[in-house]
Each structure stands twice: as structure tokens, then as C-alpha cells.
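Archive transcription. Copying these from loose printouts into the bound notebook so they stop getting lost. Printout 1 of 2:
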Amino acid sequence: MTSGTEVRSAAAFLPQGIVEDVCFEVESGRIRSVKHERGELAQRRLGLLVPGMPNLHSHAFQRALVGRAEHRTIQDPSQSDSFWTWREEMYRIAQRLDEEALFSVASLLYVEMLEAGYTSVGEFHYLHHGPDGVAPPERGAYGRVLLEAAAEAGIRMTLLPVPYFTGGFDRPADPRQRRFLHRDAEDFLQLLTGLAQDVKRSGARLGVAPHSLRAVPLRILEDILDGAREVLGSSHPIHVHVSEQEAEVESCLKATGRRPVALLLERFEVGSSWCLVHATHVDAAERAALAASGAVVGLCPSTEANLGDGHFAFEAYLDEDGLFGVGSDSHVTVDPAEELRHLDYQARLRRRRRGVVARDGDPPRPGITLWGRAQTGGAQALGEKVSGLTPGALADWVELNLEHPRLAGLAPAAALDAFLLGSAPGAVRSVWVAGRPVVEDGRHPLRDAAERRFRSAMKQWTVEG
């Protein structure tokens, strides 16, 4: 998009709420000015513009697992499948992916994200080595594959390479984890340093994502965070899985005497650069301390539901003014509206009433609270200093078609509610990243090519069932 281009919309979700008849001036990919204009506008107007949603937690390779891990694996009626049995299937898929297959999987995934309304992604990347556990001749080759796939699709990426060392608090890594592992902190920091150059050339961002406290011992985590500051500076994103499983919490208590979130808050300066992913099984004290820290909780409701993880105490966390964002994680679904719908409906079921998400001081519209707060928290987690449809922010937005049958006849604020809480497939008409359209008429221009590559990669693997 050329400098000084004007984009006009029938309505837009601005920091002060949803406003009708808005004109944006865009320069060098960012919003230069926002003007409110009444009456008929000379140029064609877009529909309802909402800020593009960050997808703060993605494991791209797991898109290949969708549908391949739903069968029952435990025949003993006294036991059941869980995250831990799903993980066995994940290991099998991870062993099969080479660089070409990973590119095919990630390409379609990033197209799907954009078509759904995600405009940026935090890629929690731990598929570092070949199937034999040996680093490829060019260190960071798999990270570069993800950067290339994101650049081709047009989605903004924050690459989050993952250090991974142990199989649990009290045991070494499993041989099936060999593609993820590093020898020591220095080995990981060498990878991070090399990726920094690739990321700079691609225009992406770079952070660091210690996998979890069960996979990164505290003494190594301290060395990695110190080293990452030297490579990346002082304010890079730091993401970590935490308290996703009750067994993980119990193991942490046994090994350290502390619960995982409490341990992190005690040992590290957890603040606005941090994103704690899942945090499903925090207690009330941990939750309140996390909210006060300024860190973001990364919620992935569709994956957490699919794996039977449990559910985060979302409405209580909102009462504490905690920051959150959403991610599609294992990509059983790729839809920010669905993630937010899960959060709202879970809250309704827990409270057994409606209208529980909008907080005091918020507009009486759940869509405004859900989309607005998730977008703000997600942007912070991915390292964006200014976000939303405001001067200085990136011109990332999603256009909702106000003539869509599910939205027709509704005021713009009510249309956002209908989009999020009533399911409106096809309502996303266009998606813009850095001031240029990457999805038009609901479809990404690379959709057909990405589908062909993906199908070719997947048909190499036979699925019994």
C-alpha cells in the first residue's frame, strides 16, 4: 500500500468502542490518523473493521496431527485417554516431518489463520532437529522453514524457539523427544543467535520459549534467560507452558515444594514480556499474583478442551483485571471467534447464567470485552508496543461483512456479538496486514496451492481406523 492511502469503513472497533463512519490514513504499514466522517463517503467503504487478532500460541507441525489422534488407545475401562496418550501420537507425527512436509503443513495453516481473522502468530517452535535427533547441516533450518511459510502467506510472525532438556522433574528426556533437545544452554543460545539473523532479514520478531519447568531445569532456565537478553535485548517475548496438567503440578510440588506458577513468580522477574501458556490449574493465590504481574495468560480453549486438560477460571481472572490472549495451539480448530466463544460459554456454564464476561466499566457487549481484551493481551505477548485501530499501530484489521445473513440488520456492536457468540461462517470478508489486503472475499489467494501441497504431504501417511 502506498504512503498516505485512505481506507474508509462503515464502522470500526476503536479504543473508545465501535464507531460508525471512520476513515484511516495508512503510511508504511501503520495507521497515521483516524478520522470520524459522517454521511455518504465518495469511496467504497469496508464493513465493520476490528483489530486483527494475534494467535499467541501455535505449534505449526501439530496441524498434521488433526484427526489422527482421536481414536481410543487405552482398552482398560478403568483408565482413559488423556493429554499424555495424545502426546504419544504427537511424537509419531513429529518423527515423520522433514523440511518439505513442515513447509506444506505450515503454509496451509497460516493461510487458514489469516482467513479466520488472525493477523499475527507466535510460533512456539521446538522441532529443531532431524528425526535422528541430529541438527541439520544449517542450524535453524526448521525455524527458517516456518519463517518462509509465514512470509509467503503474509502473516506476521514472532518466532519463539524452544529450549528443551528433560522429560520431567525427576527423569531424563525420552528418546522420542530427540528432535526437540539441546545439549545445554550454550547449545540452545547458538541456535538462537543464528536465528536472530534470519528473523531480522524476514521482518519477523524473535523471542524465547522455555518449554516448561518440567523440561527446563531452573538452573538452565536462568542461564538461558541471561543469554537471551544478550542476544535479543531486555524486552523480548518470553513464553512458557505452565500448569497445563494436574500431574505436572503434582510433580512440581514433589520436586520443588512449590506449585509451578508460584515457583516462576518467586525465581524470576515475571512481567509484561512474559506469556504463561495455559495456566489451567493455578490456585487462587497464583491467579491473583499472575494478574498483578502484568504478564499475559495464553489461553487455548479448543486445544485444552480437546485434550481434556480442564478449564481456566476465566471470569475470576477478569475480575482481577488479568491480561489474556488466545492461541490455536494444536490447531484442532483455527478460529479466534471459536476460542473466544469457548471462553464465554465455559464461564456461563460455571456461573449458570448469561452475561458474565463483560466487566464493570466495559460496554454491555461481550464481543467488545472478548475481542478487545484478547487482541490487546495477544499483541503484548507477541512484542507489539502499540496495538488496536489507533495512530501508530500496525494497520492490521479484519473486515466483517455486515450484509452476512448472521449479521444483517444488526448494529455494528451487536454484529460483533453475533460473529463471536452465534457462529457466522463466512462473515470475514477481508483481512489486512500492515495496510495491505491478504484475504479478499473471504479467501486467501494461495489457498488452492497450499491445499495441494498439504494433501500431497498428508497422503504419504496411512491412517488406520
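Printout 2 of 2:
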Amino acid sequence: MPLEVSRGITWANTSFGGLLFGLVLGLVLAACSARAPKTPGAAYEKLAAAVDNADAEALFEALDQETRWSWMTVQRCHREAFDVVLSNFPEGEDREKKLRRLEAGASAETAADLFAAKSGAAALAALKGRLPDKPDLKVHNNEALATAKAGSALRFLQIEGRWGYAGFAAEAEEVKRRAVADLELIKISATDYERARARSAP
């Protein structure tokens, strides 16, 4: 479903949207905590089921908390950046290009949806054929490793009582960094456009 945003909102007003998003995010995380994997074995089973079913959204739910937080940040940044571009950028090729690039994140209902759309297929492909039928999990404090059928060991982390697969953490962190930086640049451009309009006003 396409995202509908009022053109009258300026980027300065999007802080309320960010606050609201944070509150909703907190409620969602609280609701999900009851079914979060509490052991490395449960996290592995969740991961294996997602890969077996080729379900990218279920794969997101099997990831470690830091990776999930990174994608939630990407979703928030893309939503805010979309609003800024829609409300402040002048019509033209640059505006339309940015809107197209940000639309998936802005219209995604959840971070799981965004992950599935952007990285789900590649992530599932990277795990296919690597998961052993009976993992031998070596646990040390908040980290667990399982020998894979191919490639490096499968790494799981426990954060705030939740275990999850951490194999895509570095990639998610990089995507998050780009999204945060992109939002800041878009805000700067929006300010420049506002100043230019103010100078040209009669």
C-alpha cells in the first residue's frame, strides 16, 4: 500500500513522528519478548525453520537483537527522510529519485518487512545448505557457536535475554550507518532549500 504523507509537514516536524515511532517500537518489542528465543538451541531452531521454509520475515525474527535494532533504525530513518524529501525538496528528477530509493523503507509496516524486501533473499541463500541437522552448540557466556556444514561457524548472541543469529550483524550495521548519514544529508539539503525559498520570497 503506498504511503500517504502530507506535503505540509516540514522536516522540523518529523521529530514527533520519530518519538511516536519509538513508542510503538517499544510496545512491539515488549509484545515479542514472550516468544523470543531464550536459549541458543531455541534460536537455532527458529533459524533453521525460517531457512527450511524460505521465510525471510521469520528469518528476521531469528536474528540477534543488535541486527534487528539496526534494521529498525533503517526503517525509521527512511520514513523520516521520505517525509523530509516529500515536504521540502522541489519537484524534479532528484526529488523523484530519492523518493523511489526511500519508498520501500517508508512504506514497510515493520522492520521485518524491510529486511525481507532488501536482504531477505540474499540472507536465505547465504544460509542454504549450511545448517547441520543436529547442531553442536558451544556456549560461552552470551555467545554460542555451531559448526556449519560449509563455511565459518554459525554465531549466536544473547542480548537482553534474547538469543539470535548474529551472522548478518556487520552488514546490518553498515546499512544502518548509511541510512543515518543519508538522513542527515537530506535534512541539510532541506534546510538549504528552505533558506533559498525564504530569500526568493517577495
